[in-house]
Amino acid sequence: MTSTEKPRVRFAPSPTGFLHVGGARTALFNWLFAKHEGGTLLLRIEDTDVERNKPELVDGILVALRWLGIEWDEGPFFQSQRIEMYSAAAERILASGAGYACYCKPAAYTGGDAAEEREGEGDDEGKGTKAVACPCRDLTSEQRVAKEKEGIPAAIRFRTPRTGTTHFEDAVFGPRDVQNAEIEDFVLLRSSGLPTYQLSVVVDDIDMRITHVIRGADHLSNTPKQVLIYEALGAEPPIFAHVPLILGPDRTRLSKRHGATSVGSYAEEGFLPEAFRNFLALLGWSSGDDSEFMRTNELVERFALSGVSRTNAIFDRAKLEWFNTQYLQKPPVEELLPYVEMELKRAGLWKEAWATTDRAWFAHTVDLIRSRTRLLGDFIGWARAFFSDDFEYDPEARAKFWKDEKLPELMLKLTDALEGLPEWNHDACDAALRAVATSEGVKAGLLINATRVAIVGRAVAPPLFETMVVLGKDRVIARLRRALPAISAR
Ligand code: GLU
Asked: What is the DSSP string of 301-332?
């Protein structure tokens, strides 16, 4: 890459599962890097492993990326549609002498990497051990001809040099040197004609002119093999940046044992995409100061590979929840409205007027509620009564705040007093309630709490008089009258 060229990066998920937290973080780092640098992000679906792929998962991955707000500039490309390119590259390597045909049966060869064996994504094989050579490496040409005659299907292996080291620079982990003697003669092309991950990833990264490979540190051990392939194909390797692993709170690799790992499940649960982005961005990256709450434009502005840490990141759900409350509460309320709208639609509570004539009411109501929300679901959960007359009284609130035996009579008087109000606003409601309390010789709190349960069904809700204004007079009176029999029945 010359200094005037803009970076090209890629996110390359294998559709073997849902988009999980680790994949999403890799995608986000690539996206932030591309945005920051004015570069290009490609999306590539690595679907050559027919046994493990589930094509039906591709759509879900795209949906999860879009939910996260990660837009790619090129793709999605599908490796399954590019198979000829990989076999052509393997043939070139074979012809150059940097590869050889391997006739071993999948199970027969136990050098750590049988010809048909799945090649390692996140593969640690051969690390620190002397690689066992494949017996096919040194076959004479007569022996090869004989094998061909027998019709034994051949794989193509890389002829890893026996001596020397393979070197690469990692933007995060620094310079790396691996003894070639520790790298086995890995498979490039299986005898089925399908490429291994090592081959297809390099062929594509060359063809797609990728300048920076930003991916999980579980791929560090694959990188020397890939560097060897670049060399054999006469191409300059890209800059590698391996990002640290994500661990659960018990410091083992993040997995289902630690709770939900798919991005989709966090969307379902009611996390906001921007909160999730901010949280993910800090899993292995820091801005250099203690900043945590950073809106996306700030993340883009500040993101640099130099801020990526080598230390494994810990997934802390409490932190994610903290981010969510920040994003529910801090940005201008208008930004939140589309999400609340979606949530209300999901629950069948949405009214079109809230998008048009009653937009101001909707914004005001969401604003009133949001300081007490943790998840989007709260808008249809405890705050349901703000949007629907169909809500239930929380049994605990009811038991606690409707138990005074004078309440049926008091609430009737309060309802009448409120109904007689010529104007319906915060102070008028406040004064009317306090007047009833004074004349009846009870504490205002008794009426406040009982009224709150009657009109929103909960003990914990926004301040009562603001709630009354937002709900409007007719609704409040109707709800109070509706509650009277229940208060009497207790
Ligand atoms: N398909 C690989 C994976 O899902 C990514 C490989 C890479 O980024 O080089 O782990």
From this structure: HH--GGGB-SSPEE--HHHHHHHHHHHHHSS-
308 lines ligand 1 (CB under 6 A): no
Model's pTM, two decimal places? 0.91
**Pocket perturbation via mutation, ligand 1, pick of 54, 58, 215 by most ligand atoms within 8 A of CB:** 215
191 CA from centroid of ligand 1 (Å): 22
Distance between CA atoms of residues 125 and 186, nearest Å: 10
* Domains by residue range for the chain, with CATH: 8-80+246-319 (3.40.50.620), 82-200 (3.90.800.10), 332-386 (1.10.8), 395-488 (1.10.10.350)
Atom of ligand 1 nearest to the CA of 23: 4
CB atoms < 10 A from the CB of 164, how many? 11
Atom 5 of ligand 1, residue of closest alpha carbon: 12
Query: Exposed, middle or buried by CB within 10 Å (0-12, 13-18, 19+), for 90?
Result: buried
Q: What is the pLDDT along the chain (490 residues), one digit of tens a residue?
A: 556 789 999 999 999 999 999 999 999 999 999 999 999 999 999 999 888 888 889 999 999 999 999 999 999 999 999 999 999 999 999 999 999 999 997 654 444 343 434 444 444 333 445 566 789 999 999 999 999 999 989 999 999 999 999 999 999 999 999 999 999 999 999 999 999 999 999 999 999 999 999 999 999 999 999 999 999 999 999 999 999 999 999 998 888 888 888 999 999 999 999 999 999 999 999 999 999 999 999 999 999 999 999 999 999 999 999 999 999 999 999 999 999 999 999 999 999 999 999 999 999 999 999 999 999 999 999 999 999 999 999 999 999 999 999 999 999 999 999 999 999 999 999 999 999 999 999 999 999 999 999 999 999 899 999 999 999 999 999 999 999 999 998 6
